[in-house]
Specification:
Layout (H helix, E strand, L loop, with lengths): L3 H36 L5 H28 L20 H6 L9 H22 L6 H23 L4 H4 L8 H19 L20 H20 L8 H33 L4 H15 L8 H24 L8 H19 L5 H29 L6 H6 L1 H6 L12
Length: 417
């Protein structure tokens, strides 16, 4: 039988675990910044770093003001969330020590912190896809709406016990709620924005616009890989029991193996098809494996998790090539990594979790993509009509660093290309 002292100890342990996992996920903001800074051209580095650190601050502010309430204070089983403000009160000592099924087992502030870093992750996905040609303040205006309203609505449908949760849709740590959401918003922006100048020729040829700093992109991928342990392991929500501790360990190991599988699959395909060991494909393969296993990192065996990651790596390799042929310009591969791999991860859940059904998973995919894409398209479209989305041709040629930020990341070495 649990005593008040034991409940207090478990509450403290689970809260500590939760905030440390949240800190790991917050560190993923650095990973996205380094990855994107490495995969864009030198003349656009300062601007994309500015976007990444500012979108994190915007996400924190908007989710505190309105997003968290939308997502977690709305009717169970519902479709329309309840509008409200701020994040509510902390749990009382009495409620914790009372025990019972309704007793909280971690701090309410810890829950907010863990959730807000997920919102920032979804917005970071958009940043890379629209890089090198979008106006900075237009992007930040969209971030206000995305993090305050668009993301929380679909988050409520699943994690806030809305209708998708009632329908049996499973998404353990956010292949859909976070990654597919971010990719859907990015796709809407890419369609209205158009490709970078010079990316595609008049006769359909695809011109490479290589990133300026592959060591930085590799560092960013490794930071994301590390942060993902908090992303998936923290989504168990607690670890103070034997069952929870074992689930956390499974989430860590499976997350790691899916990333490894995705990297190897993408690198092998690049070698077979290109005749070269393409580093950028390897990096995106690892990220694809991480995205895919996020939907269910606990129930797969270690071998199954590796295979899920390998399929994701192969799918992303093909998707990146296909999107280029369709002239959908995505400088960092975000649409493929977070969209295609996110869909695959959600569809893979019934393969290892008997509680999942393909029908419920498809329903979740359709609802998330439908809501986020349409809402984002409307917001992007309104911003385009009112202010325009793109920098002008001369600013794009000289680089958005100078046009938007007035400084260069590499002033001694920047080449205009």
């Amino acid at each position: 039988m649990e005593t008040p002292d034991l409940r207090a100890l478990q509450y403290g342990l689970d809260t500590f675990y939760f905030v440390i996992c949240g800190a790991l996920v917050m560190w993923m903001a650095a990973g996205f910044a380094m990855l994107e800074a490495g995969l864009v051209r030198a003349k656009n580095t300062t601007e994309i770093l500015t976007k990444n650190i500012t979108l994190y601050a915007v996400a924190c502010l908007m989710y505190m003001l309105v997003g968290y309430h939308l997502m977690y204070s709305s009717p169970e089983g519902g479709f329309l969330p309840s509008l409200g403000f701020l994040i509510g009160d902390e749990h009382s000592v009495e409620s914790v020590l009372a025990g019972g099924a309704d007793a909280p087992y971690y701090s309410a502030r810890a829950d907010f912190f863990f959730q807000v870093v997920f919102v920032a992750t979804a917005m970071s996905i958009v940043s890379g896809a629209v890089a090198e040609r979008m106006k900075l303040w237009i992007f930040l205006a969209f971030a206000v709406v995305m993090t305050g309203f668009i993301y929380p609505v679909q988050g409520y449908w699943k994690w806030g016990s809305g209708f998708l949760n009632e329908a049996g849709f499973l998404d353990f740590a956010g292949s859909g709620v976070v990654h597919l959401c971010g990719a859907s918003a990015a796709l809407a922006g890419v369609l209205l924005l158009g490709p970078r100048r010079g990316k595609y020729g008049a006769n359909g040829q695809i011109n490479a616009l290589p990133g300026a700093n592959l060591p930085l992109a590799t560092l960013g991928t490794l930071i994301l890989w590390l942060g993902w342990f908090g992303f998936n392991g923290g989504s168990q929500l607690k670890m103070s029991t034997v069952e929870d501790a074992n689930a956390v360990a499974s989430a860590f190991v499976n997350t790691n193996m899916a990333a490894a599988g995705g990297l190897i699959a993408a690198l092998l395909l690049a070698r077979l098809i290109f005749g070269k060991s393409d580093l950028t494909m390897a990096l995106n393969g690892a990220l694809a494996g991480l995205v895919a296993i996020t939907a269910e990192p606990v129930t797969p065996s270690v071998l199954s998790a590796t295979l899920i990651g390998m399929v994701a790596g192969a799918l992303v390799f093909g998707s990146i090539l296909l999107l280029d042929k369709l002239h959908l310009d995505d400088p960092v591969g975000a649409l493929s990594v977070h969209g295609v791999a996110g869909i695959w991860g959600l569809l893979a859940v019934p393969l290892t979790n008997a509680d999942a059904t393909f029908a419920a998973q498809l329903l979740g995919i359709v609802c998330i993509v439908g809501w986020v894409f349409v809402a984002s398209l409307l917001v992007w479209g309104l911003l385009k009509v009112l202010f325009g989305l793109r920098v002008d041709a001369e600013e794009e040629y000289t680089g958005v660093d100078l046009a938007e930020c007035g400084m260069e990341a590499y002033p001694e070495f920047t080449r205009k290309a």
